[in-house]
Design goal:
About 1% of the residues have low confidence. Among the domains are: 71 residues; 190 residues, no CATH class. It is globular, with a radius of gyration of 23 Å. It is built from 21 helices and no strands. The protein is an all-alpha fold and 438 residues long. The N and C termini lie far apart (49 Å).
């Protein structure tokens, strides 16, 4: 049975039914109005299918921090932001995938500040670490649809692989296709008949498609959409019994939290992801992201311990094929992220050297990552009072990010503008400020 979107929306914000009722009353008060909304009325909306009137829907949006122009009373409850589907039963994969597809494919392209709480995502990580895998996760032999054979799955896998490895600048063309493939794979999982081995492959494919689509939404700043897609990927990965793949989804959620200046949430997620990660490369990446979250909180000893673990596991990963989701991890990433950790801890000279070394090691095929690394290098130059070198790196990062269509990287560079304004006459700074303002 589908969980009502209002339940998901308030649970993701840590609200009870009574809490939502109070928030609606407060929203009415801000408008000089009174609302008679009670916990019982919220129950009627969520359980009995009663549709709130348009005025109440505006107040619900206000309670969630959603702009009123995103409210569509005729599309209740589908205009609501998605929440996090809990890992509370064995057959949760399809509901999680359907919820992610619903919100990602139907919501307005206008964005608003994501309100899914860090606590909700940490709770999801906690439940994943504690949950046992489904007993028979991928057996579709009892479904009523047509039989799916290996030839069909192989075709889906091959085509999806091509879509998922497209360069950043091509994603504007391929992102809709990813969602279409994810929807088709979800249909097969839910409605078709298949053996358990085929079911495992379908669930694994769904996880990878959801993960890639989540990164697309994250790069565009559509954070709630990204969370619901990573959540769906986590459910699908759990059904495959692939602990590393599940840890990958949590690691991405943690990366998003760190990017949005919530390192405490990131650290909480990563500590749970590490309890089940098995492959050395997976453990290396998770430890590296944990180090970034700990450094942002000023925890020097734990940061250095996590960096040491990341380096150790990266060295151990060379003899075993890396999982596809972290196959790119290498010495360049270790050096740059280590440098960024040291930058947060105040060791600016050593940090600057490591970031420079890592940037030089990065292969030319990873332009988006190169743009992020260049932004880190610019920040490092600013930290040691070298605005000229910083402006050169920031300008290169900005032009690269704009060329390949990487808005997240563009924003990272533009966040440096206030620091550059302190050096208005330094060589290259006026040109960078002009480019950043364009």
């Amino acid at each position: 049975m589908r969980i009502h979107p209002l339940v998901l929306a308030r649970a993701a914000r840590g609200m009870t039914g009574a809490g939502l009722a109070r928030a609606i009353q407060a929203a009415a008060g801000r408008r000089g109005l009174r609302s008679g909304t009670t916990r019982q009325r919220v129950y009627k909306w969520e359980v009995e299918g009663v549709i709130p009137d348009p005025e109440s829907q505006i107040l619900i949006a206000d309670a969630f921090g959603i702009p009123a122009d995103l409210v569509d009373p005729h599309n209740w409850p589908d205009w609501l932001p998605a929440g996090v589907i809990p890992l509370d039963r064995d057959d949760s994969t399809v509901p999680a995938l359907r919820e992610a597809l619903r919100t990602t494919m139907t919501r307005s392209r206008r964005t608003f500040l994501s309100a899914i709480s860090g606590a909700a995502v940490v709770s999801l990580a906690d439940s994943w670490a504690a949950a046992a895998p489904p007993a028979r996760p991928a057996d579709g032999a009892k479904n009523q649809g047509q039989w799916v054979d290996e030839e069909v799955v192989l075709l889906l896998e091959d085509t999806s692989s091509s879509l998922m490895t497209q360069a950043t600048e091509q994603r504007q063309h391929t992102a809709p296709l990813l969602l279409a493939y994810l929807e088709r794979v979800t249909d097969l999982i839910e409605n078709s008949r298949y053996s358990e081995p085929i079911g495992l492959r379908l669930h694994g494919l769904a996880a990878h498609l959801a993960q890639t689509a989540a990164w697309h939404r994250f790069d565009l700043g559509r954070h709630d959409d990204a969370i619901t897609l990573w959540n769906a990927g986590l459910h699908a990965a759990r059904a495959t019994h692939d602990h590393d793949l599940g840890a990958a989804m949590l690691g991405d959620l943690a990366y998003q939290a760190s990017w949005r200046d919530d390192p405490r949430t990131a650290a909480g997620i990563l500590k749970q992801a590490l309890t089940k990660a098995r492959h050395p490369a997976a453990q290396s990446l998770l430890h590296l992201r944990l180090a970034r979250a700990l450094a942002a909180q000023g925890e020097r000893r734990e940061t250095l311990r996590a960096l040491t673990a990341a380096e150790h596991f990266l060295q151990d990963s060379s003899s075993d094929p890396k999982p596809a989701w972290c196959a790119w991890l290498g010495d360049a990433d270790l050096a740059v992220d280590s440098g960024q950790c040291l930058l947060d801890l105040g060791d600016t000279r050593r940090a600057h050297r490591l970031i420079g070394e890592g940037s030089a090691l990065l292969p030319r095929t990873r332009d988006k990552t190169r743009g992020v690394f260049l932004a880190y290098r610019a920040h490092g130059h600013l930290r040691v009072g070298e605005p000229e070198e910083g402006a050169a790196a920031a300008t290169e990062a900005l032009l690269l990010a704009e060329r390949i269509g990487a808005p997240r990287c563009v924003q990272l560079v533009r966040n440096l503008v206030p620091q550059f304004k302190k050096y208005p006459t330094a060589e290259g700074v006026p040109e960078f400020l002009h480019a950043a303002a364009a």
